[in-house]
Amino acid sequence: MWYWVFKYILMGPALRALGRPKVEGLENIPAKGPAILASNHLAVVDSFYLPLMVPRRMYFLAKSEYFTGTGAKGAFQRWFFNASSQIPIDRTGADAAAGALVSARRKLDVGDLMAMYPEGTRSPDGRLYKGKTGLARIAMECGVPVIPVAMIGTSELNPPGTTIPRLGRITVKIGKPLDFSRYEGMEGNRFIERAVTDEIMYELMHLSGQQYVDVYAATLKEQPAAEPVTETPPAA
Q1: Biggest distance spanned by C-alpha atoms of the chain
Q2: Which of 15, 148, 153, 211 is the most exposed place for a label (fewest CB within 10 A)?
Q3: Closest CA to 199 of 235, 174, 149
Q4: 139 CB contacts (<8 Å, ≥6 apart)?
Q5: What is the pLDDT along the chain (236 residues), one digit of tens a residue?
Q6: Local structure of 39: helix, strand or coil
Q7: Whole-prediction pTM value?
Q8: CA–CA separation, 163 vs 30, rounded Å?
Q9: Contact at 8 Å (CB) between 207 and 173?
Q10: Residues 40, 120: contact at Cβ < 8 Å?
Q11: What is the dihedral of CA 166, 168, 57, 128, to 10 degrees?
């Protein structure tokens, strides 16, 4: 219930006034049945504007820190993220995240929509970074289509490090579903999972118009003084 209350009453009207959002390609979202929405990630508000513009309910994987806070603020965060269909994921490693990925598979098995950020974290500078293969693994194991989604303008409305949104103009561009059924039975093969991930990132690059950087965003955040990164498109 709270999902719809947030969407249409408590948050939706204010988000529409702030971001004046529009959506393109909504016909690419199936009316029913499972699918994974693979989105670029520029700002915290991506996770608010994407469900706002898609009629169907969707579930997100959210970093586990949102569910482990203490005090009144921590309690409110846990309630809010649980009520808004967020699934906690530990980003410290593949083994730690396994439980969340199982939860994501369960949602897909019953025909729900999952929204995931293949970059694993927000872009530090507005560019598109190398995708992690967890999304590809789930899509292949569950046999579901992957729908690329480009969030545009969210980093201007909610720049990194800010908590109070600014006025802006948000566009949500939804691409055509990607079918990876040709790889049936190949899940677990890291080379195939990388190829699937790169194909998703290639579509996101064209849909969003972002420059592609062939390193993980998390690595760049951890090493701010690293050498310049390579801007090359992922393999198609």
Answers
A1: 49
A2: 211
A3: 235
A4: 36, 145, 146, 180, 196
A5: 889 999 999 999 999 999 999 999 999 999 999 999 999 999 999 999 999 999 999 998 777 676 777 788 788 877 887 777 777 776 665 554 566 778 888 999 999 999 999 999 999 999 999 999 989 999 999 999 999 999 999 999 988 878 778 899 999 999 999 999 999 889 889 999 999 999 999 999 999 999 999 999 988 877 654 455 555 667 66
A6: strand
A7: 0.86
A8: 34
A9: yes
A10: no
A11: -100
> Which residues does 73 contact at the CB level (< 8 Å), separation at least 6?
none
Report helix, strand or coil for 23.
strand
Task: Write down the residue that tokens 């290639």 correspond to.
Answer: 202
The SS3 assignment for 30 reads: coil
Distance CA 154, CA 171 (A): 8
Instruction: Give the residue carrying structure tokens 């529409």.
Output: 16
Both tokens of 193, joined, read 């999972």
Token pair for 70: 């203490």
